[in-house]
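Known limitations

Structure tokens in this collection are predictions and should be treated as such. Users comparing against experimental data should check residue numbering before alignment. To illustrate the layout, the record for EF-hand domain-containing protein is reproduced below. The input appears on top and the generated tokens appear beneath it.
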Amino acid sequence: MISRRVDCPNDLELRQAFDLFDTDHSGGISVMELKSALGALGVTVSDQEARQMFSAIDIDKNGRIEFDEFVEVVADSYFKKFSRSEILEAFRRFDHNHDGYIEADELKNILARLGRNFSADEIRRMIAQVDRDGNGKISIEEFAALVERE
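Generated tokens:
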């Protein structure tokens, strides 16, 4: 087990990110779950690349990535400040129809590819949490504010 732990208010956010990858809720991320999650985020990797990434993260070599290993690898990048170009690139990956907004159906599809199915009402509530202008969509500015918080 890894001794370093992130012990801060953002622990919950890291747990939620881990849970998005751990689609079978086993408490560990498999190679296929890692590859699937990367694909859902628009990052295409071969089976061999996925195995190599997995091996680098699976520090105790038990065949699954536990939460502590996940935190060890992602915490620094998770909490870093993103450049405007990085934010724009992430936004473009989610804005599938390229209309300048992340709409309910796009968010629902992204989450479904991550193994999380939400009702239309739940998706609307998620969007409402960041939708400052009340148009029911997430603009690049609203997305940037969400990513840059902290």
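For this record: Strands lie at 101-102, 138-139. The chain has two domains: 11-78, 84-148. Please report discrepancies through the issue tracker.
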